TrEMBL record:
InterPro entries in UniProt: DsrC-like_C (IPR042072), DsrC-like_dom_sf (IPR025526), DsrC-like_N (IPR043163), DsrC/TusE (IPR007453)
Domain of life: Bacteria
Function (record text): Part of a sulfur-relay system.
Compartmental location: Cytoplasm
Major subcellular site: cytoplasm
Family stated for the protein in its record: Belongs to the dsrC/tusE family.
Organism, scientific name: Pseudomonas asuensis
Name by which UniProt lists this protein: Sulfurtransferase
Any Pfam family matching the protein: DsrC
High-level lineage: Bacteria, Pseudomonadati, Pseudomonadota, Gammaproteobacteria, Pseudomonadales
Keyword tags: Cytoplasm, Transferase
Regions crossing the membrane: none
Length: 104
């Protein structure tokens, strides 16, 4: 695997560098073991980015996941459990996307 070029917060500098292996390494750095449930969200997030060219904040992320994967997955409790309480920021990072602009 090539070296990870990330900013000081751990986001990829070049979105083209992303791969499933890179996602696994980014997750390892966050002490997360990616499960099929994580991948479902990461893949949905990458589709969202491909369509809208932006990383969604928490509310739009929850809405999008609810619309595409169903309400049992598109809710803050489920996403917070998967992504340690900051789903929009952490999921975007693991999906190789820019930090959501309206997330602190």
């Amino acid at each position: 695997m090539k070296a990870l070029n990330v900013d000081q917060e751990g986001y990829l500098l070049d979105l083209e560098d992303w791969s499933p292996e890179i996602a696994e390494e980014l997750a390892r750095r966050e002490s997360i073991s990616l499960t099929p449930e994580h991948w479902e969200i990461l893949n949905a997030l990458r589709r969202f980015y491909a369509e809208f060219q932006l990383s969604p904040a928490n509310r739009p992320l929850i809405r999008y996941i609810a619309q595409t994967l169903g309400p049992e997955k598109g809710n803050s409790l489920h996403l917070n459990l998967l992504f340690k309480g900051s789903p929009a920021k952490l999921a975007a990072k693991l999906a190789g996307l820019p930090k959501p602009t309206n997330c602190l």
